[in-house]
């Protein structure tokens, strides 16, 4: 090819490809990306010449010579060939949309850019699969040991295999296992008990790697921001580590610094965990029963929140701003100007972690029951009254301060409840305290998404047996066992605990272990029910009721002033026989849009079917003028109508595949 002609040929080819792609897009009524547009046009460019050759071959006298006398007829056949070419490109596009819908694959540029990242992820994926196989999790993944999970020993064995696999998987999987261990609302108790043994210990990162993170996040050298900074970490975990420091103002602070390069590792492992969860959800009965896909998504969200220290600073500020703060419980004050995604600076609380504070409590003569009551009161006020609460109150996150008060740390994981859930939770706790199964069932059905069909009488009987077991007579049941039995009742009736309420029970179960270490005789559930009843009494005290009534009356006053006039107009219209009701069907634009789309598709389907039937009748009808030796006028019209029918049918199919 002449080099001078090549640019013109290339330009003409690209323009032709775009024209065919745009025509197919317009006739199908869908919007295509540039890659699909070019691919569709290129397909038309390939098959077009073959279709035209098949159409125009009958008008060829010799190679390269056409019968000039058949010019008008050849024009209509050429036009039909062009339309068939567009039809073929439309069919090609519909097939692509059926098997590879728009958006199911990333754009080519993104796909190419992430090729090496996918290769690393694939290598890591098979590494995790190999770890799972080596530690005995393979048979559970394949679903061949589902029947063994019906027995407690089988569930314990699954828990041990899962715990050893997660422990060998590294940072992210250990974190997943720790959070998973607190989800006794979805996991069997035996599995959760095995996962609770996972420890989030890690070797500290050297100062030479931590200092660049501080400089990058704070935008200044460490000595410019802090008057003193200890390079030796006070504590180290899988995600970050804590250092002691002092600001130039003289304030003693602790600085939590995220490990360098931890986010890409966590994101890659979370993606792998999501894929494994999808495999378990579709391939195993126990995976579907536990809802591992949704569970993995929730755990991933929790871990991503912990990777952003700004969220923790906001959580501390939100809990500290509560109107129900207790003077006996202290929260560290974050220095918001110094808090970034990877660095958290907050006031230092001088004290000892509760899980190592036995000697301190004895030396200072602190009352264990008073400390336990203050801690439980603080947590319950956060849950029942404030709606934002510490979701992980284990002994390492609670300090006994030097002045005898308690300090709460690590607000990377918090729970939130809206007003409606808090009211229902209060009624649930009060109903349990009063052993009222009717009140408990009503409150429980407000807490959970209510299914279309439920046997409420059977639910009340099961809740009555549940309360007879745990609230009557000597209270020997632990909170964990009580929550487990409650979750079992909920699951037996097809109900699903919302994540917010599951976080409440998880926090209380964690708090029970902390309180049991502080004072083994402490009755968590008994004290919780008593405190919750006290909160309800506080809210419904005469002064509170008077204030609430005054606020409601002030809000209703404008409505009450207009009410007599409206009643009078309604009565007058009824008296004179002019009372009517005006109902507007399909008043919502969304409803009209759905109905309009359905009508369009039905109409197009009807037209396609009608045109197709007429085309077949015309093609099979003899007589009429003969355009060529084999094709008559009626047949040519039928072929054109058949193309139109196919275009209409493909348009309907494209809309269906695009939505589905």
From TrEMBL:
Query: Which Pfam family would be a valid example here?
Result: ABC1
Q: Does the keyword Transcription apply?
A: no
Q: Would I find Kinase among this entry's keywords? A: yes
Q: Which UniProt keywords apply?
A: Kinase, Membrane, Transferase, Transmembrane, Transmembrane helix
Entry-linked InterPro entries:
ABC1_dom (IPR004147), Kinase-like_dom_sf (IPR011009), UbiB_kinase (IPR050154)
Annotated ranges, domain ABC1 atypical kinase-like: 197-437
Residue intervals passing through the bilayer: 6-25, 37-61, 73-96, 602-621, 633-654
- GO molecular function (one): kinase activity
Q: Which CDD domains match?
A: ABC1_ADCK3-like (cd05121)
Against SUPFAM superfamilies, the record matches this protein to: Protein kinase-like (PK-like)
The entry assigns this protein to a family as follows:
Belongs to the protein kinase superfamily. ADCK protein kinase family.
Q: What is this protein called?
A: AarF/ABC1/UbiB kinase family protein
């Amino acid at each position: 090819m002449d080099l001078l002609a090549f640019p013109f040929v290339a330009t003409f080819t690209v323009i032709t490809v775009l024209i065919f792609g745009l025509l197919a897009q317009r006739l199908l009524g869908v919007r295509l990306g540039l890659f699909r547009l070019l691919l569709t046009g290129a397909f038309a460019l390939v098959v077009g010449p073959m279709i035209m050759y098949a159409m125009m071959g009958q008008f060829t006298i010799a190679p390269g010579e056409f019968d000039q006398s058949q010019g008008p007829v050849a024009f209509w056949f050429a036009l039909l060939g062009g339309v068939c070419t567009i039809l073929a490109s439309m069919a090609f596009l519909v097939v692509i949309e059926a098997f590879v819908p728009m958006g199911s694959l990333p754009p080519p540029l993104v796909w190419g850019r992430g090729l090496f990242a996918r290769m690393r992820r694939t290598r890591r994926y098979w590494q995790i699969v190999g770890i799972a196989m080596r530690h005995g999790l393979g048979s559970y993944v394949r679903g061949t040991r589902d029947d063994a999970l019906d027995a407690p020993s089988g569930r314990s064995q699954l828990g041990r295999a899962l715990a050893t696999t997660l422990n060998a998987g590294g940072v992210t999987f250990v974190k997943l296992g720790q959070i998973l261990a607190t989800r006794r609302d979805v996991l069997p108790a035996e599995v959760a008990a095995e996962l609770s043994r996972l420890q989030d210990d890690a070797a500290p990162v050297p100062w030479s790697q931590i200092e660049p993170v501080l400089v990058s996040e704070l935008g200044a050298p460490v000595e410019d921001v802090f008057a003193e900074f200890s390079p030796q970490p006070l504590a180290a975990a899988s995600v970050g580590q804590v250092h002691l420091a002092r600001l130039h103002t003289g304030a003693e602070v602790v600085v939590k610094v995220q490990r360098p390069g931890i986010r890409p590792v966590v994101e890659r492992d979370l993606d792998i965990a999501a894929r494994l969860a999808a495999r378990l959800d579709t391939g195993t009965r126990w995976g579907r029963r536990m809802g591992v896909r949704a569970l993995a998504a929730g755990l991933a969200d929790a871990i991503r929140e912990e990777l952003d220290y700004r969220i923790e600073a906001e959580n501390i500020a939100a809990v500290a701003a509560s109107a129900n703060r207790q003077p006996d419980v202290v929260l560290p004050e974050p220095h918001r100007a110094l808090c970034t995604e990877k660095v958290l600076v907050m006031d230092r609380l001088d004290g000892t972690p509760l899980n190592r504070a036995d000697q301190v409590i004895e030396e200072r003569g602190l009352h264990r029951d008073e400390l336990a009551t203050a801690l439980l009161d603080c947590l319950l006020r956060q849950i029942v009254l404030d709606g934002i609460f510490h979701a992980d109150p284990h002994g390492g996150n609670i300090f006994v301060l030097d002045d005898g008060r308690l300090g709460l740390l690590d607000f990377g994981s918090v729970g939130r409840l809206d007003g409606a859930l808090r009211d229902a939770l209060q009624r649930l706790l009060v109903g349990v305290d009063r052993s009222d199964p009717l009140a408990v069932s009503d409150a429980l059905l407000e807490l959970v998404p209510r299914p279309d069909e439920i046997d409420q009488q059977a639910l009340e009987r099961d809740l009555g047996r549940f309360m007879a077991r745990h609230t009557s007579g000597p209270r020997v049941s632990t909170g964990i066992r009580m929550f487990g039995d409650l979750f079992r009742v909920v699951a037996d009736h097809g109900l699903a605990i919302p994540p917010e309420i599951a976080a409440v029970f998880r926090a209380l179960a964690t708090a029970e272990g902390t309180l049991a270490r502080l004072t083994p005789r402490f009755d968590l559930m008994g004290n919780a029910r008593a405190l919750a009843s006290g909160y309800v009494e506080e809210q419904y005290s005469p002064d509170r009721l008077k204030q609430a009534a005054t606020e409601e009356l002030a809000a209703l006053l404008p409505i009450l002033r207009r009410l007599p006039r409206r009643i009078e107009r309604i009565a007058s219209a009824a008296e004179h026989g002019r009372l009517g009701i005006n109902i507007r069907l399909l008043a919502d634009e969304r409803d009209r849009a759905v109905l309009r789309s359905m009508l369009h598709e039905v109409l197009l389907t009807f037209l396609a079917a009608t045109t197709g039937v007429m085309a077949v009748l015309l093609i099979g009808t003899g007589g009429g003028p003969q355009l060529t030796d084999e094709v008559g006028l009626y047949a040519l019209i039928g072929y054109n109508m058949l193309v139109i029918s196919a275009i209409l049918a493909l348009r309907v199919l494209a809309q269906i595949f695009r939505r589905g």
